[in-house]
Structure formats: structure tokens, C-alpha cells
Amino acid sequence: MQRMLHYLLDGTLVTIRPIEPGDKGLLAEGLRRLTPETAYKRFLSPKVRFSDAELAYLTEVDGHDHIAYVAVIDEQLVAVGRVVKTAPDTADLAIVVGDAWQGHGLGSWLARLLAAHAAIEGVTRIAGTMLADNRPALRVMKQVSSDIVYDDLSHGVREIVTRLAA
Ligand SMILES: CC(C)(COP(=O)(O)OP(=O)(O)OC[C@H]1O[C@@H](n2cnc3c(N)ncnc32)[C@H](O)[C@@H]1OP(=O)(O)O)[C@@H](O)C(=O)NCCC(=O)NCCS
């Protein structure tokens, strides 16, 4: 898929493109710039650096069972979103937007793009796992689809599954 240009709600122009193996440095730098709180919300554990194996897993994706996009502003990676199939019809959605860029519509836009791409690959159910009080993440999940087929809250973590429209 080609690069796409997207305007944030404040008018900033963002380049959105599929992640590439050559993005390992950008990804590592992107994680270093996240606040600990944002990194924790994304990974549900403290995360300060990626191992080489993690960087390979996160950037060397097949575009079918594992689809990932990056958002770039001024050559800096400002957001990453991915869907990873866990069954032929189900995929986990995970997104992180850099702290300075949160609340500008980027997470919602990435989520809808990823859901559309996943649907082309046969996915009909999108799953997400988030801290129980993470309202923006829940909103993003509901923007993908308001048809919630599973919603579980346990030990401060919420798991939600939505069904995509046919
Ligand atoms: C969750 C996250 C991806 C959302 O992306 P975003 O670009 O900040 O969110 P958007 O601007 O697209 O807004 C999405 C929704 O959250 C709401 N929202 C955004 N920031 C908010 C805040 N600080 N408090 C409450 N609601 C907020 C928006 O109003 C919007 O809801 P709406 O559709 O009802 O208007 C982003 O905040 C993030 O990276 N958080 C840390 C990592 C994380 O939590 N990832 C999700 C689990 S994998």
C-alpha cells in the first residue's frame, strides 16, 4: 500500500504508511520518547526498550496476518498501530500515539484504517486489551465498531471484542 497523507484536527500534516523492516531505529526512538504512563498503557507493563527480537517482530510484518502502520511527522515516528490475527476471523488491535499528539484524532484514524485492512484479510472481529480506566482506548475500539460481542473487566484490565459490519 502506498503512503497516505492525513491532516490532524489541528491541521498538522501526517504521513501514514505501512511499517517497514528499516523502521527499527525509528521505533526504538519512538518508545524512548513516550512517557512511562503512555508506554504502560500500550504494553500493560513497564517498557523502556525493545530487544532485537521484539524489533524484528514489530517491523518485519507480513501485511496479512500482521498489519502495521506508522504515522510520521517531520521524520519522527509519532504513532504506531497494528492488528495481529489470533484466529482466521479475529485480530488484536494495538495503537500508541506519542504523548504530544494524543487527542488529535490520530488514534481513531489509525484504528479505522487497520480495521478496514484487517477486514480485507478476512477479519470480522477486532479485540482490544486496555487498562480499565483508559477511556480514549475504549472510545477508539468503539469507533471501529459499536457492536460489542465480548466485554470483560478483570484485575483492572478490560478485554473487549467488537464485530465489524459485514
Ligand atoms: C488510546 C490512544 C491510541 C487514542 O489515540 P488518540 O489519537 O489520542 O485519540 P483520538 O484523538 O483519536 O480520540 C479518541 C477518543 O478518545 C477521546 N479522548 C482522547 N483523549 C482523551 C482524554 N485525555 N480523555 C478522555 N477522552 C479522550 C476522544 O475524545 C475520542 O473520543 P470521541 O470519539 O468520543 O470524541 C492514545 O491516546 C494512546 O496512544 N494512548 C496510550 C496507549 C494506549 O492506551 N493504547 C491503547 C491500548 S493498546
From TrEMBL:
Membrane as UniProt keyword: no
Pfam families: Acetyltransf_1 (PF00583)
Enzyme Commission designation: 2.3.1.-
Residues of the N-acetyltransferase domain: 14-166
Protein name: GNAT family N-acetyltransferase
GO molecular function, one term: acyltransferase activity, transferring groups other than amino-acyl groups
UniProt keyword list: Acyltransferase, Transferase
Classification of source organism: Bacteria, Bacillati, Actinomycetota, Thermoleophilia, Solirubrobacterales
Organism: Solirubrobacter ginsenosidimutans
